[in-house]
Amino acid sequence: MKRIFFSLLSFFTVFNFSQAQNNLKGSPPVIAEKDLTAYLFVYFIGNKVEEEAVNYAVSTDGYHYYALNNNKPILDSKTISSTGGVRDPHILRGEDGKTFYMVLTDMTSSKGWDSNRAMILLKSADLVNWKSSVVNIQKAFSGNENLKRVWAPQTIYDDKAGKYMIYFSMQHGTDPDKIYYAYANEDFTALEGAPKLLFVPNSKGACIDGDIIKKDGVYHLFYKTESETAGIKAATTTDLTSGNWKENDNYLQQTKEKVEGSSIFKVNNSDEYILIYDVYSKGKYQFTKTKDLENFTVIDNDISMDFKPRHGTILSITRSELKRITAKWGMPGQLSKINNNPVLEGYYADPEILYSNKTKRYYIYPTTDGFNDWSGYYFKTFSSDNLVDWKEEGVILDLKKDVPWGDRNAWAPCIVEKKIKGRYKYFYYFTAAQKIGVAVSDHPTGPFKDSGKPLVATRPEGIRDGQEIDPDVFTDPKTGKNYLYWGNMYMAVAELNLDMVSLKEGSTKIIAADKTFREGTYVIYRKGKYYFFWSEDDTRNPNYKVRYGISDSPLGPLEIPQNNIVIQGIPEQGIYATGHNSVLQIPGKDEWYIVYHRFSYPTGIKMGRAGGFHREVCIDKLEFDANGYILETKPTFEGVTLK
Asked: Of which family is this protein a member (predicted)?
């Protein structure tokens, strides 16, 4: 974990600083854009009662979609609606990143187009299980005695109000359809107040099927005009409830056929958007692409679907969300292969990996990344039983609450499991405020209790540069002795006392590596040899990489192989800055894996200096040749595959 703040101006001028600054906040986002790697299409399929239901389809590229559940509903319309049917599903990810909201027209066309007075509100924490409520506008709010229909509700978060706005079209008597809005209550089970007008076009004609997206501080409303020449238009505003909309007179559909139900979504990790709409008279959808939300190009030839949707919406989802819904409704055989790197969603770095003999599970202990200038202050852990699917176990140590001697810069932890007097103990070494501390727990997921003081607070004797960071704990299988390694710009080692929370007096030693050594020492033992890993260069540099040396002792000296690169980036594949590793040996086997971080893909390389604190954790196979030398690992997107 590099913390040397020397000038890199000549290096960073090649990067787009403006994009980096636009992406940065003081702390990690609730969902990192780089983790949005798939799409969920929510739709219904027809005008028969059994077809008026919520269906799911998925895509990994935004162009090729495959129906889930054999194109059958994922919800029972009869249990969630008042009419027996639902149409026009709209889905939204909440501001917390993990709650989902869906709204539906409560209607079956078999009862007539002017037969519905209600909408359905749904809320979910996993895209699988939904809680629903029916909101009947006519019954809930007075003054709607002549209400004829309530169509195509949608949801957006109103930043100014700090609430979820539901907007929809309504027609009263012989008046044209108009777009109204109301805010949902906190539980998303009802509306806080009577609907108010959101938008009426200058023509005063009918408008339905509103769809709003926010781009660069401007809200873009796409809607269908009905009383004039029918088609899709757009209007913009910077204040949703101001009534001040600027209309675009152009029709946006790229067909002469009848259309409705437009919906727009952003292409993952791109500056492009795709506008879709239901060409309902032909039983098909049209897809168009844009960057400015004004000029659209048809991309129908690039699109494929193994189903025929009606009026729906598309939501960007993460790999874990894709796995969750396909675990429930089946993985389409035609779907592109799902990569397993990065193994953790979000921004994390400096990964330490542990196999626990107590729980028979694997654990990753990373630096929580995504904070400006590595300013994170807490540690999390993640567990897995297969090295592919990882569960967040929560915060295990919060420097501001738990570590009085160091409340900042939570970096690069390591851990060891010890069985002491028949009970497992976990000793967790970590960096805080550029010092090394230790915390103890009875369980790999904590809670951990700090020892009360730093274990290493000053540079070793004779060392004039560098930082006291990046601890690594190692138990020598030959002697049973425990060692702590640490250092940036130098490699230090000291023997741990039996209590594991103090160093043996006078045992600190500096191990000479070579000029490539910067930080991140990690030691393993294999077939009589000790392997020392370290990271070269600055973590902000795309050339950050891992090298190694070999020794006959945990205290050195080191033999540096002629070709000692363990892993490095592959720029032509967009993989950069692969460094600061730990190593896992599968228990009882000569099978090894390297766990490391890299710039977040594909966004990190575009962030300039900030790429060095927007990193992600990956796992790949680590292999040795017949003479015991490490073969260079090629970093992959595929990662570990389940056996």
From this structure: Belongs to the glycosyl hydrolase 43 family.
